[in-house]
Design a protein that fits this description.
It is a single chain. With 677 residues, the protein is α+β, with helices and mostly antiparallel strands. Strands 1-2-9-10-11-12-19-16-15-14 form a ten-stranded antiparallel β-sheet, sandwiched between helices. Strands 6, 7, 8, 13, 17 and 18 form a six-stranded antiparallel β-sheet that branches. Strands 3-4-5 form a three-stranded antiparallel β-sheet. The longest helix is centred in the C-terminal third of the chain and has 20 residues, at 465-484. The mean pLDDT is 94.
Amino acid sequence: MIRDRQIVLSWNSDSDPTFLRSREWLVTNGLGGYASGTLAGIPARKYHGLFVPNLASPKGRHILISRCDECVTINDRQMHLGGAEYDSERFEGESHLFLKEFRLDHRIAVWTFEYAGVVFEKSITMVHNQNTVCVQYRLLQGEALELQVRPFVSFRRHDESPRAEPGSFMLEVRRGRHEVRHTDSDIVLRFGLRPGPTAFVTEERDESNFVYRIERDRGDPEFESAFSPGYLLASVRPNHPAVFVASTHAWERLEFDAPAVFDAERQRLDHLLSLTQVLKDDPVAEQLAMAADQFIVLPGSRLEESVLAQAAGGELRSIYAGYHWFGDWGRDTMISLEGLTLSTGRYREAGAILSTFSHYVKDGLLPNLFPEGERQALYHTVDATLWYFHAISRYVDITTDRALIRNLFPVLQSIIQHHIQGTLFNIHVDPNDGLIAAAADGYQLTWMDAKVDGWVVTPRRGKPVEIQALWHNALQLMAHWASQLHEPHEQYQKLATQVRDSFNRRYWNERRGCLYDVIDGPEGDDDAIRPNQVFALSLQYPVLHQSRWKQVIDMIQARLVTSHGLRTLSPDHSDYKSHYRGNLRERDAAYHQGTVWPWLLGHYIDAYLLVYPDPAGARALLEAFPGHLYDAGIGSISEIFDAEPPFSPGGCMAQAWSVAEVLRAWLKTRPGRSSSR
């Protein structure tokens, strides 16, 4: 049920506890840090943790607290919440016996438990733009309960392999202030229970060889160990909640009213939802807009860059591509920008993101990604830079902020010239036809970028179809912007015309009635039916002649469209994979060889509406997603789905461009709303 900006799941104690270990929750802090786990409180991924801040030093996201176990005593009955899973399907923890409801309330994770007439609530949130997590325990019905909170600490970077041994930790306690350090780290974890004074029992516990079931199912290292220095004690009474607070900040920054943090987070999200009227009276759109907020970040591991940006009168903003393991990727950022920021009225952040990325342009290329914990970007991408033009165009059209074009125009000019002259990774314009070619051994340059053990699964070397569509769109936009700025524009228009003529002459595959996926590749032209051809008509300036639009849409609809997105390869192809599962090599072999990607639906719907002015038919393509908000990552949209029923979700449990494009398409297809671009 979705109500009052909440997603609510009721629970029956007779139900299968496996369900609670297969559904995940996520709260974030606007810095790239997060808290996440399963509804059962039992970690199932190496990435799960109650407190995972994104640190400036040492750089990157670190799991400081992997979980907290609670022991609640009511009428002499001890209830053990949280816990862990072990080999042979054995697990500890009784959450499933007492849980009555889980809800995501304004992105605050809330569990309601009941026993013997006593009802109490556990809530988790993070302080926005601060590396601090708060866990509140509140009594809703009954006279009192006794609470023990036992944190387990890890101090490893979240993408590192699980540790067989927890290592050596030091605990220091002074007047209710508890500090934990690892002997091999400068990180200081500070924690306590509010309000004080509270008791702390030093009872060290090493927990070894618990299992991450998702890592096990993926064929990755699955066993972890963690250390607990002891547990905190408190009495929880009506109107007197207890709040566990953990942070990397100095104690002086932690002198706040802990229960008020939860109200502040609700108010912050209420304000964000008020920025645009298009979300009003649409619970699904509101949920997606709140999910969108989790990806818009001030990168916490690059705070020194924020200082420089502020000194220059700007802001540092980026988009994290997905939780748990993706950071900020150029391609994902530009594809996601409209849905995450412009559809939600967050124009200031959209402008800051576009300006931020202009500072990272190198040799005419936008960064592909910033590796976890690193400042230096990687540039092995042919399409991220071209998506930049699309994102700028959508921003300017929606906000009418033409000053951004004036500020970025020199950068955009440089990008075009670098592509004409040739740049990194053999990305260059072929002077014979004006099309962009790209090929570099060992690199995956398009969005179909799976690579494992040196094997590039879909290299797509040559001239990929969507690159030409994006290139043509960028040239047309540059001609338009140059004319507005009274700059020479003839070069851009002339090259755009050449690209369009060449494209329509060379890409049409008459035998199959659609577009080639790649031409001029090492083995000639690739006639695999893939979704990349949709961009030839979905962008602002379509490169494909209108006479071919219907054939492309009909082919995609017949071969690639599913209830959860577009397949990445037609089922009749010999390389088609119907399911995304197995070890890393098996998964990467399926990643773009059939696996369904929901983000592609946004552009497919744009193109579909050009051919069939049928908003109801377009809206029907999105019918699965309100229900999916209860699957996998509660309140968000997964990265990918299997290519065949039941279209099981996979990959990241919360993906930026999935949320962005489904939200954008959802709003575009609302009854009574114009379906124009």
